[in-house]
Amino acid sequence: MKLYTKKGDKGYTSLFGGTAIKKNSARLHAYGTVDELNSLFGLILSQKPDSTITEIIKELQNQLFILGADLATLLSKKTKIKRIGKDEIETIENWIDEFDGQLPELTSFILPGGSPAGSTLHLARTVCRRAERFAVELKDEGAVTEESIIYLNRLSDLLFVLARYQNFKTGIEEMKWTPGK
């Protein structure tokens, strides 16, 4: 079987269930950005972060495949897929609480940066926020589940906490934002 199908040459792709959509649609932007985020997670893993972060990122990569399929499937389709739900959201909330509890309290805004893995986690947070914005656009059309929006919102919070944790574990001091500089 060849890798290329030529079906997308006219600017369309097919969702799960067979519906054809334009490649510049908000739906494709949403799940394409989730795919981009998953690739960033691969980059983070190549930077050998803290072992606990490594295990979390591996689990998140699997969850992002579920989310990508979720976003690539119309709610009206009878296609049987797993969708992101309350369990995944609760897991992320638990991780946020666990890692945030080990960090110094924030007293000011911080600038993204730090170790290679910490900096890339900050970048992943911004890509996650972009995916969330596209998903919200779909939500306004009634085209995605509320859980997918909540998941992306919590995931970006987790990535912020993990970036801070990675930098903390590697002994890199956070750069505080100083207004007016």
Give a description of the structure:
It is a single chain. The chain has a two-stranded antiparallel ribbon with strand order 1-2. The chain has a two-stranded antiparallel ribbon with strand order 3-4. The radius of gyration is 18 Å and the shape is elongated. It has 181 residues and is mainly alpha-helical. The chain contains five helices and four strands.
Layout of helices and strands:
Blueprint: E1 12-14, E2 20-22, H1 26-46, H2 51-71, H3 86-100, E3 110-111, H4 116-140, H5 146-169, E4 175-176
Antiparallel strand pairs: 1-2, 3-4
Shape: elongated
Q: Roughly how many Å is the radius of gyration? A: 18 Å
Largest sheet: 2 strands, antiparallel
Unreliable spans are none
**Secondary-structure class:** mainly alpha
CATH architecture: Up-down Bundle
CATH superfamily: Cobalamin adenosyltransferase-like
Summarize the structure.
By secondary structure, the protein is mostly helical. It contains five helices and four strands. The longest helix is centred in the C-terminal third of the chain and has 25 residues, at 116-140.
Give the tags.
4 strands, Hypothetical Protein Ta1238, Chain: A, 5 helices, two-stranded antiparallel ribbon, 6% strand, mainly alpha, 181 residues
